[in-house]
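Students often ask why we bother encoding 3D structure as a string. The short answer is that it lets us treat folding as translation between two languages. Here is a chain of 361 residues written in the first language.
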Amino acid sequence: MLDPVELARLLSGIAVVIDAPARELNDELEWLIPEAYRCTHGMARVYLPEIRLGHPTDFRRHRFFLDRDVTALGHEVVRDLIVEALARRFVTSAQHSIGSISDIEQLEHREEIKRVIEQARQDGQDNAFIEYCTGEVKRLENEAETLKFNIETATERADQLETTVRTEEFLRREADRRAEAAEVNAMRLEKVADMIAEYGLPVTSLSEAVAAIEGLFPDKVVFTVDAKRTAESAEFNSLRREMPQAVRLLWHIATTLHDLLYRDTDEPGRIVDRFKQRSGGFEMTMTEGSMTNRDAKAASARRVQFNGESIDISAHLKYGPIQNKWLRVHFGRPSDSSNQLIVVGHCGDHLDTAGTRRRGH
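And here it is in the second language, the structure alphabet:
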């Protein structure tokens, strides 16, 4: 769920990024790494320097994100948390790195102390003086180690607080988004109530069904002029008792089909089966037959103009035949998917295919 190439680029010179997608590799690591230190099953983990696999609590330093964490926070947030945390730790975690003039001065000072102690030994200086200097060096080293540990602890705490803040920001944005969606749904319900009060339901024609769905879901589905024309002239209008089913079919375009096309994109190859399952049995096909596709006139009837763009509407929903009458709703998507619209270009009787045109002749 995170892009290892992008992470490697952003962490160049700071960390090594390893991508381990193979299940076999994860199985092997179970033999080599204690459970608390593992990184398997979709996890992303940051191993800090000086990892101590035998230490009972060292695993807490090496933060990890589960796949559900990435889903909740968003991959960009998790990426930034990892990069920023490692960038802060870089200087303090590299024991012998040279990052500034003061680092060079400290190294020179340390070497000077070593030379003084060694010279004192060679000159036969008092052992008490040598022990004092040695002890002082150890004391300073211990203080440095303590400071390093305190910095490490403070940095870890800062990372945790930052994760908490980012999580709270995400939850706030998600709450705002849901509030906006709830407001839109409330407005739609008001429109439904108004339409029921004014027109009553069920509708009596395809044109009324198109008007109802277009009024309820203007941000999800749009009916072209041709679609409205074919709805008005369709022989299917004579089947008054089937109009509630026509409304249901168009309703599922704006709800079920819209979700499958723009939200539930994890299994695009199963959209036909998923639509039939979720819509209660309505059938859909995404293509026409090869002979129809090669027939110039039939293929032309399956393209519509929308906002200056020619859109393929070969994909369609099917209802019927009932009393030798069909309802076919042909739809497509604009190339600019930012507005997430479904364009309905035909809503009426069965379009001609290569086969029906030949039989007509």
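Translate back mentally: Confidence is low (pLDDT under 50) at residues 92-96, 357-361. Keep this in mind for the problem set.
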